[in-house]
Amino acid sequence: MQNAKKQFNQSVVNGFKKEGMVVIDDILPLPWIDAMRYWALTTEYDPNQIYSGGYRTRDFGESYEGKPGGPFPIPELQQVIQLLSQYDILKDKRFCRGWFFIHQNKCPGVDPHADPAAINVNIWVTPDWCVEDHNKNGLKVYDTKHPDDWTWNDYNREREKIDNFIKDSNAKARKVNYKWNRGILFDSSYFHKTDSVHMKPGHHNKRINFTFMFIDKDKNAQDYI
Ligand SMILES: [Fe+2]
């Protein structure tokens, strides 16, 4: 058993080194997935905060210290971080910030961008039976990182600049299909985007992804901006 765990951990490290991304199915215990989904479906949102891709978001982590709900509004978030931190690939990293995105039932989703961290862990918490179009709802992770001299604003927000760079550098999109309780670990500096969203009607069917951002232990979040 111990040996199997070691082998699995090594396969994750090897996969990440080779591709810069790894997919891990059934990554979390289902009661945690349910708790995260329930929280995302029922928590209150700022009615004015809706992104153009058709999703709303709620952050968590240290920056919420002292604010309503605190840094971890549900205990499962800390349990997830503890579990993820046991992976060898994350042992020299620490959790920095996280969020969920809850998408409108049919929408484009998140535009191509990269994130200010070392490794992103994306986890889908909406069951597969909520999906209307199984060709959509996944994630596309390009095989190209943002240039070192780009600022956070360049690689996260400048839509036209990002689109042109992806086109000019001939970046290939690696498609990861949507799956309940599927985790995707990828180098945060790869451009990535939602593979558009089409779920069944109804609030409970909305596509929800959680993201946990990890940074190098010897760095600060600011170092990535
Ligand atoms: Fe992202």
Secondary structure: elements and pairs:
Layout: H1 2-19, E1 21-25, H2 30-42, E2 55-61, H3 75-85, E3 93-103, E4 106-107, E5 119-124, E6 139-145, H4 152-157, H5 159-168, E7 173-176, E8 182-187, E9 190-194, E10 197-198, E11 208-216
Antiparallel strand pairs: 1-8, 2-3, 3-11, 4-10, 5-8, 5-11, 6-7, 6-9
The protein binds fe (ii) ion (FE2).
Fe (ii) ion binds next to loops.
General description of the model:
It contains 5 helices and 11 strands, in the order H-E-H-E-H-E-E-E-E-H-H-E-E-E-E-E. With 225 residues, it is α+β, with helices and mostly antiparallel strands. It has a single domain (28-224), classed as Sandwich (Jelly Rolls), CATH 2.60.120.620. The protein has a 6-stranded antiparallel β-sheet with strand order 1-8-5-11-3-2. A 3-stranded antiparallel β-sheet has the order 7-6-9, with no helix packed on it. The chain is globular, with a radius of gyration of 17 Å. Bound molecules: fe (ii) ion. Fe (ii) ion binds next to loops.
